[in-house]
Amino acid sequence: MPYVRLSGFYYYYFALLGVLVPYWTLYLESLRFGPEVIGLLMGMLHLTRVLAPNLWGWLADRTGERVRIVRFGALAATVCFVPIFWQQGALGVGLVMLGFSFFWNAVLPQFEVITLQHLGEASHEYSRVRVWGSIGFICAVVAVGGLLDLIGVVWVPWVVLGLLALIWLNTLLINIGAAGSVERPVDGVGIWHILRQPQVAAFFAVCFLVQFGHGPYYTFYSVLMQDLGYGRTAIGLLWALGVLAEVGIFLLMPRLLEGLGLRSLMLISLLLCVLRWGLIAVLPESLGVMLFAQLLHAATFGCLHAVGIALVQHYFTPATSGRGQALFSSLGFGAGGAIGAVVSGLMWESLGQYTFLVASLAALIAFGLAWVWIKPDLWQPFDR
Q1: CA atoms within 13 A on the CB side of 379
Q2: Going by fewer Cβ within 10 Å, which terminus of the chain is more open, N or C?
Q3: What is the distance between the terminal CA atoms of the chain, rounded to a whole angstrom?
Q4: Which of 216, 181, 182, 301 is nearest to 253 (CA)?
Q5: Single pTM value for the model
Q6: Contact present, 314 and 379 (Cβ < 8 Å)
Q7: What are the 10-residue block averages of pLDDT along the chain, 384 residues in total?
Q8: What is d(CA 93, CA 85) in angstroms, rounded to the nearest whole number?
Q9: Residue 360 vs residues 211, 285, 292, 350: alpha-carbon distances, Å
């Protein structure tokens, strides 16, 4: 039963992402916002990941009340989103996005810790729980894409509100005691000692660059496809194909980790990042190429996310795991995603699809850093 409850959270959380990522930009475009404004507004979704996960991670590690913090964050995100129905200007929409995402972005890193605490020594099975998030994304992106072709993008906020409420309701099913919410592990290794290690610094730099590279994808891929004549159903199916490939890789992840190891998986995935963004930049009008590029999502997100979660567990101690997951979220998905979204918005008017070449360059730099520094087998974090 705990596996069902944990999987349910991921299902609804990433179903919401499956609405926001492909269709929220189309909703913003329907409000007559230009590319620069859309880039800034989408950047706000990522910007709150810089502060919020670290604040809630510190609070959860200090109090041990991780489940209650997750429940509060999910409820607060739902309440903060309600005013969106009365907003038409960029300022009002931006404030709502800033408010609800501050709490929404704080929830996932702490739930990752809860999941790993539930799994205990079976932490290698994490991907089999997390895969339900990918399934939720697929269901949402396909169903909502078809629905919007019928009723229009004006209904997107209603779908978002419904999913936020379902996320909160699912958090009420999590057993507080089983999640270790009152336990506060203590050891003699401070978080700053861990962060000063070159491997850890390089790891977070790689995370930043990977999510910076995803900036144009999350912000303008749907807009690009729509401009090229793809319908919303087709756009939804393209997004779904990418996440379907991600589902497959999550199911295979225990074997891949055992066979290839963390370092090799990261390096291969980063090279495929370079290829994927390059293909979207050069040949977006080719359906066959776009189908192949979407299949590469298995590596560029699926593999890199699973490897990132594993490396956080590898580098950080039980007493710092909440803050470690928070930093993974804030420096990668937060700072990297926010800056990537804003920069892509500024570049889109002049570069258009070739903005994806900047993403490809970022992935290439990340590959160089990983090649030099990411060597988990040589990690000795507690030698003073």
Answers
A1: 24
A2: C
A3: 43
A4: 301
A5: 0.76
A6: yes
A7: 78 92 88 90 81 78 83 94 92 93 86 80 72 87 85 89 94 68 52 87 95 92 92 87 87 86 95 98 96 95 89 84 77 80 91 96 97 86 50
A8: 9
A9: 11, 18, 16, 18
